[in-house]
Amino acid sequence: MLALTAALLVAPPLIIRRAQVDISPPEPLPLGGYTERKGKHMEPGGDPLYARCIELERGNLKIAIVVAEMLTIPESLCREVKARLPKDIHLFLQATHTHSAPDSQMLNDRMTFSVPGIATYRRKWLDWYADKIASSVTSALAASQTEETSDLSAFAANVDANRPRRKGGKPERMALFLKGIAPVFAYYTAHPTVFDSEQNKTSGDWIGIAAQRFGTPILNGAIGDVSPAADGPTPAAKMEDFFKRFAVGIGTKRPTWKTVWDARKPVKWFDVKIDLDSKHPSPAFLKDYGMPAPLAKSLVDKFAPPEANIAALRLGDLAIVGVPGEPTSILGNQIRDAGLKMRFKYVLVCSHVNGWIGYILDPADYDRGGYEATLSFYGRYEGPKVVSAAIDALRRLR
């Protein structure tokens, strides 16, 4: 008992700092996510968009979790943000994937060709967004108010507010809330597409509204084949239905909080490279776009990044795995289940982290084709390779 007490006395606490930065563009830009908008610029009067940073520090390890209300995170944006930060910061940068934010392809320095309904690269906006997002981290680092905690607790609930949109999909329905002295972040899985292509104003969609209501950033899960369950005749009615479902799921008077980290448990970080095959257009891409194979190959070469990494962190019994694209629920569940077998209490598989390699499907789903397969760029074994890298990251964390 004395040895345990002594160990706790010398173990460093977890320091938590927070910051929020408005990333609403100062002029009208085309919104991303729906090519049906045909590139028209957003209308005035939308909601503000934010980058919310949670900076975690223990000893010499510093991790910045940034949740940005954006469509995607091109690897050029991740690179530019990192270049503006201290070298000792590990960056976990996630796009919420709202379809009511400026088109992130403007920040993709390989997107130098024109595709109808998709924006092209503009250096001005890459620099602007990199400055803004980096400032959320530097503001957190400079924050005068900090939280020092010796434990973190999680509350998990089953929330029936999402649904599959591809064959075999089984969306994770766990909503998780993490707190120290104050809330740290929450987690759920659903595409932020409650607002459809008729919405031409900025909005964080359900995930931005949830962040406002819960007072904490929301990490999004493996959303590649997961839509929100939101029924109603109007977007407002759909949003109300979504949050009614959410309220039913978490509406317990006495939530059970479980300790996932205390001062005896580790905090860790690992980057693991994904062993991707060479880029090439999928059969679905060739079929749907009806272009010659050499031209399709040229487009995919420019559109998709040459490499990508898994970003993973551990907070005691909680593991968070960041995937640089949109994995389906099938793949997300494989990663989660592998982590649970390693005796993590919770494994959060997050989409759109530190890059975007498109949709990530298992081989059978890739062969089925459809919209998601047209945006899968590394062949039918891309999904298993992403899962393998994620499980490798979990092993290293464990």
The tally of beta strands, per DSSP, is 18
Structural class by sheet pairing and helices = alpha+beta
User: What is the straight-line distance between the termini?
Assistant: 26 Å
Please tell me how large the radius of gyration is.
Answer: 20 Å
Description:
The chain is of the alpha+beta class and 398 residues long. Helix content is 30%, strand content 25%. It is built from eleven helices and 18 strands. The strands form five sheets. The protein has a five-stranded mixed beta sheet with strand order 4-3-2-1-5. It has a five-stranded mixed beta sheet with strand order 10-9-8-6-12. It has a four-stranded mixed beta sheet with strand order 13-14-15-17, covered by helices on one side. α2 crosses α3 and α8 (329-341) packs parallel to α11 (382-397). The longest helix is centred in the first third of the chain and has 19 residues, at 123-141. The model has no long low-confidence stretch (mean pLDDT 94).
Features:
398 residues; alpha+beta; 5-stranded mixed beta sheet
Short description:
By secondary structure, the chain is of the alpha+beta class.
Layout of helices and strands:
Blueprint: H1 2-10, E1 14-22, E2 50-58, E3 61-68, H2 75-83, E4 89-95, H3 123-141, E5 147-149, E6 151-158, E7 162-164, E8 174-179, E9 183-188, H4 205-214, E10 218-220, E11 226-228, H5 235-250, E12 258-262, E13 267-273, H6 283-289, H7 293-303, E14 309-315, E15 318-322, E16 326-327, H8 329-341, E17 346-350, E18 359-360, H9 363-368, H10 371-374, H11 382-397
Parallel strand pairs: 3-4, 9-10, 15-17, 16-18
Antiparallel strand pairs: 1-2, 1-5, 2-3, 6-8, 6-12, 7-11, 8-9, 13-14, 14-15
Helix pairs in contact: 2-3, 8-11
